[in-house]
Design a protein that fits this description.
With about 90 residues, the protein is an all-alpha fold. The chain has helices spanning about 1-10, 20-35, 35-45, 50-65, 70-85.
Length: about 90
């Protein structure tokens, strides 16, 4: 749980416009095929701003050695985390 807290802190607040559907689709790929596949999926699916932010979040999760399940939880709560209300 400590690594998840570090990741959330590092993600910090941001003004993102990642759509809920993109997050849901990315989470599905993550849980079915793993982080590498989710990163590739996100890069191919979304526009530049969304891709940049989603890629940044996934890199932070990878750096903090989070499990796919923990990353999925972060994706579920990403808008709240980045709003600063976490």
């Amino acid at each position: 749980m400590e690594d998840m807290g570090k990741a959330i802190e590092e993600i910090g607040t941001a003004k993102t416009c990642i759509t809920k559907q993109v997050l849901l689709d990315t989470k599905k790929v993550l849980l079915e095929k793993g982080l590498d596949a989710a990163e590739i999926f996100a890069a191919q699916l979304v526009g530049t701003d969304q891709n940049t932010e989603l890629s940044r979040v996934m890199k932070i999760c990878r750096k903090n050695n989070l499990s796919n399940e923990a990353i999925a939880q972060i994706l579920d709560k990403l808008m709240i985390i980045e709003s600063g209300k976490w």
